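U., I forgot to send this yesterday:
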Amino acid sequence: MTTMTAANSPSGLVMSEILSEDFWKDRFPKLSISRRSAAPLQSQQRPHQQPLERIHERMMEDGYFGDSDAALIPLALALAEGVKTCVSMGLPPVFIFLCDEVWECFFRLHPVISHLLGDGYKFLPAFWVWHVDPKNRESGWRPHRDRGSIALAPDGSPFSLSLWIPLSDANPLNSCIYVVPSGLDPTYDTKQENTFQASPVTIRALPAKPGDYLCWNQSVYHWGSPSSPFATEPRISMSLECQRGDILPFDNPLLEPLSTPDFPVRLRLVAKQILQYQRMYGFSQELCEIATRIIEANQTR
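Result:
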């Protein structure tokens, strides 16, 4: 079983500060909050190196694909510094989702997502940010399927996808993503999908760097590896889920693509993730109470 270290207990945080946009703007001075729109995303540079037809073929054959977009590089490097700020504050790095640049990264992938899920796709209120520190021998998430076979249409195409973007180098030493390609997984889309029966030789490591991104359907078996004390830097990464718009929501509230949530919504979504993953990380009671109060405060605003 993999191990994960809980975030330090936040200290000295005042609720009125946490609810304040200005408080977070001061903490992330090189990033922006509620100051940018989706307009700059309409660049001539496409967010994929492979033809969309090949991406579709890879998704149907392997259940995943990887590609790159140079426009992600400066965004990723800036966000990595923001993640380090969160860690220094004793907060889960998921608070970086308050920043516009996070949403810009995922908005960049719009042509790819819409090709796979259709123009009416939605973002799910399901995301996370990792700071896997080899000094503490931390690990990514243990082997799992995000949703399993319910995330597949009868023809094998995806109902939902997980999007994963590295903000630092991710390699076998500091914890990269590993997958079992769907075509080589004997329990993929079967009643035995919760058992692991794949041959070890079918496992693929997916090292990645800023500017790259990974995408897999939510039935693919995958995990983040344990880090090695010989790694030279933490693995920093983030993910966001999305689904087709013509099916019932896997979670609520669904979010419109290319429409940046306002600050109160972002803050409430961050709090939702903290409570959702509390059992996995063992967050402090103080942090969970903060998350609960964020949700309660925003419901009345």
